[in-house]
Amino acid sequence: MSDLDVSVVICVYTEDRWEDILAAVASVRAQSRPALETLLVVDHNPTLLERLTKEYKETADVRVLANAGPRGLSAGRNTGIAASRGEVLAFLDDDAVAERDWLRRFMEAYTDPRVMAVGGRTMPIWASGRRPAWFPEEFDWVVGCTYRGLPPGRVRVRNVLGGNASFRRTAFDAAGGFATGIGRDGDKRPLGCEETELCIRLSRARPDAVLLIDDRAVIHHRVPAAREHFGYFRARAYAEGLSKALVARSVGADKGLESERRYTTRVLPAGVARGLRDAVLARPGGAGRAGAIVAGVLTATGGYVVGSVRARRGGATFSVVEIEGGSDD
Question: Mean pLDDT over all residues of the chain?
Answer without folding.
Answer: 90
